Amino acid sequence: MRVRVLGTAAGGGVPQWNCACPGCSGARAHPGWRRRHASLAVQAAEGRWYLVNATPDLGEQVEDCPELHPGPEPRRTPLAGVILTDAELDHTLGIARLREADAIGIVATAPVRHALLTGLHLGEVLTPYARLDWRPLGPEDRPLAEDSPLTVGAVPVSAKRPRYAAGLDDPDDDADDAWVVALRLTDRTTGRSLLYAPALAAWPDAFQRAAESADHVIVDGTFWSDDEPLTSGFGSRTATAMGHLPIDGPDGTARRLAALDARTLYTHLNNTNPLNDPAAPQHTVLRELGVEVAADGMVIDL
């Protein structure tokens, strides 16, 4: 299994267009600090790739990844579809950028599909341009494609809905906790697996078991501390209240990751996160714990 990290930022990216916080100002002064929205590209088979989440900067992410370039025929593309971890705008707006395709394959849980079709009216907007081919995403591991050794399964981690879907009826009384999931990607050839959770509001037992059995674990690193949204002056709620476990602190995720045998990395960094500065002392804290910060363009081979 080959995985390319296409982006590692939370909503708005780094820098965010309307922000002059230290992280965004630093990214404007030092282009190497820049981060695109959190996303992965996963190779399902030779010449066939799936995106994990479709972000607003999807086009730029594809152009920066040679494996995703079209060819040799004029309109042949290696992109086979998109796997969604949730229905947030930052993870789904990029679907509209795929409208030039004849069909768009979307792998999603029932609540996420319901939100996109009912809340965003994605079907009404896009079907005049391209067919939407929906495939269910559930807890069982299913092949990513017919000829692929990769399987994908979902680990529910949160019932947090996007704001636009707050008033929607739930499509399934038993699916409320599947609004946000972690993805378990497994290569049946090697038996190796990757767990990807860019949004993590809690650390349920099922997620702990999945993390203990994975070879690579990439998780939500939106905020360094629980009070970061408050101390930065840009929020009125704690990180936990916003649906993101902090990295540091007694309820933080860093020490949980350090206890795993897997290679562990953070993604989905908010622009206020001090880890955006390569010289920040928080990097030393993570290095001592054996935990990494993922970088845009990183390649992971399992």
Architecture overview:
By secondary structure, the protein is α/β, with parallel strands linked by helices. Helices cover 20% and strands 25% of the residues. It has nine helices and 14 strands. The chain has helices at 22-29, 58-63, 89-92, 110-119, 122-126, 205-213, 228-231, 254-258, 282-289, and strands at 2-7, 39-45, 48-52, 79-83, 103-108, 131-136, 142-143, 150-158, 180-187, 193-197, 216-220, 263-267, 292-293, 299-301. The strands form two sheets. A seven-stranded mixed sheet has the order 6-5-4-3-2-1-14. A seven-stranded mixed sheet has the order 7-8-9-10-11-12-13. The termini are close together. The model has no long low-confidence stretch (mean pLDDT 96).
- Tell me the overall shape: globular
Classification by helices and strands:
alpha/beta
Strand content: 15-25%
The number of distinct β-strands equals 14
What is the radius of gyration?
Answer: 18 Å
Mean of the pLDDT scores?
96
Query: What kind of assembly state do the chains in view correspond to?
Result: single chain
> What is the N-to-C succession of helices and strands?
EHEEHEHEHHEEEEEHEHHEHEE
The termini sit apart by 5 Å
Query: Share of helix among residues?
Result: 10-25%
User: Unreliable segments (pLDDT under 50, ≥5 consecutive)?
Assistant: none
- Main sheet: strand order: 6-5-4-3-2-1-14
Number of helices: 9
Biggest beta-sheet profile: 7 strands, mixed
